[in-house]
Specification:
CATH topology of the domain at 3-15 and 123-280: Rossmann fold
Number of helices: 24
Number of strands: 15
CATH class of the domain at 3-15 and 123-280: Alpha Beta
Distance between the termini: 96 Å
Strand order of the largest sheet: 5-8-11
Shape: elongated
Helix content: 40-55%
Amino acid sequence: MDYKKIAELCFPDVKLTTEEIEKRYPPRKLDGVQVVSRYAPSPTGYMHIGNFFQMFISYNLTRVTNGIFFLRVEDTDSKREKEGAMDVIYQILDRFGIKPDEYQDLDGEVHGNYGPYIQSQRMEIYKAYAKKLIAEGKAFPCFCKKTEGKEDVLKLRQTKFEKDDEKEYDPCRNLTVEEVEEHIKNGDKFAVRLKTKNDGSQRIKFYDLIKGEIEAKANAKDFVLLKNDGLPPYAFAHAIDDTLMGTTIVVRGEEYIGSTPAHLELFDALGFKYMTYCHNPLICKIGENGNRRKVSKRYDPEADMRFYFVEGYPLDSILEYLLNLINSGFEQWRAKNPDADWKEFKFGIDDITTVAPIFDLVKLNDISKNLIAKIPGETLYQNWLNWAKEFDVDLAKILESDKDKFIKLCQMDRDGSPKPRKDIYNYSMIKKEFDYIFDKPHNFEIEDCDKEKANEFLAEYLKNFKMPQSNEEWFNGVKELASQMEYATDNKLYKQNPEMFKGNTAKVCEFIRVALTGRKNSPTLYTIMTILGEDEVKARLNKKF
C-alpha cells in the first residue's frame, strides 16, 4: 500500500514537516526537580470547581518546585463552545491571583516560547502529525458519514464495523489508494483514525503518580485523531501539545484513566515518550441517599466558580479550603502557622489525597470565618464596599454615604479583640447579619411573659439616658437601675433565691438588646450604641412590646 500517496491525497496543502515543528519546540532546560504542568480548560461554559481543583494542583506542583505553569486553551470543540467563556477563564484566574508563566492573552499576544497556547491556532501542527501517521500506515482517512439519532448510530456500529467483544476496527482502515482518491475527488469529508495494532487480547501496565501501577486492556479501537472538520479531539491534541510544550506532569481527573491505554498507543505511534500522569480523585458530595456523587452544576450552585464572587467569599478562603481537600496535612499546618501565607505550605505528589474528597460548604464557611475574623476593620469595610459595587449597587451607595459608621461596624469586636467575632463568612451576608444597623428592627425575640417587665424597665432607662463614655460606664449605669427596680446584680445570689427578684442584670441587658436589635444575641451593646448614635438609641428605646 502506498501510504505516502494516501497522505498526500488527504493533505496536499500541508507542507510543514514534523521535524520542522519539533525544531520550534526544543526540550526545556530544567534542573531535574522543576515540574512543568498546565491548566487546559475548554471554553464550553462556566468554570467548574472540579476543573479549578485540578488547575490548583498543577499550579502548586509547579510553584513549590520553581517550575513552569502554563495556560493552554483547548477550544477545538466548536459546537459546545460558549460565547464569553474564554473571558470567564481569564477573569477567574486573575481574581484568584493565579498568573501562568506562559499563556496567550485575550488580545492574542503570546507570552512564552511554546505557543500558540490556543489549540485552534495550532491546526497546521495537528495536520502535519496526522499526515505523518497516514504516511507511515499508522492512521487512515475514514469517510464514514455521521448518522442522526441513537438507533442509526447503533445500527452503524453493528453493520459497518468488523467487531467482536474486544476490538473495533473501522471499515475504512483498508481502503485502497484508488478508493481514497475517488472519495477525495467527490469532495467527501473524512476523519483521520488511528489504525490500532491490537486485537483486544493484549493488556498493558502503566504508572500513575497517585494511583500507582495500573493494569488494563490495551486499546483495540480505531479512534479518531482528526474529526471531519479538521479539528482534533482531546487525545490527539493532548499527546502532541503536551509533548511539544515540555509538560512533565499532566494533572487530570480520574475519569481519564479508562482512556489512558488509547493515549499510550497514540504516544507509541507518534514516537513520543509516555506522559507522566497524575489522575486526581473527583470532588464529591454526599447525596440525599447517603451515597457519594460528583459535584454537579445541576444541583450545586457552588460548582460554578463565579458563585464565590457573587456571594463575596474572600478568595484565599477558597484556596485554603481546596488545599484541605488536596492534602489533609494543610489543616495541621495552618493550626501551627495561623498567620502564615498559604503559599508557605509545601506539598508534593505523594501528599495528594488518593480518595475522592467530599465538598463541605460548612467547612468552607468555617475557614472563611477564621480568615475574615483576622481582617482589620477598615480593610473589611473596603472589601465589603468593593463587593457591593459589583453585586449590590444600592448597598454600595449606603456604605459610602456613612463611611465612619460602617467602619465602626466592621471593627466591632474585631480590631484588638483577643477573641474576634467569627460570625461572618462572606460579604453578602453582612447586611443581613447586621440588618438592625441599617434599619429599625420590626420583629423582636421576646417572650410574652417578659414584655411587661421589659416595657417597665425601658421606660425608666430612657428617662435619664445619655450616651455613656465607655462600656464600663454603660454597664454600671444599667446595674444601678436594675438594682433599684429589684433585679439581682449578684448572679450567685440570684441563683440561690430567684423568687426574691424580678430577674437579673442579664435579663435587663436582654431587654435593651432586643429593643435596639430585635435579637436576644448580638455583639457588645455599648458598641452597637456608639454605631447607632444617641438619637437613634433613644428612638429605639422609646417603644413598647
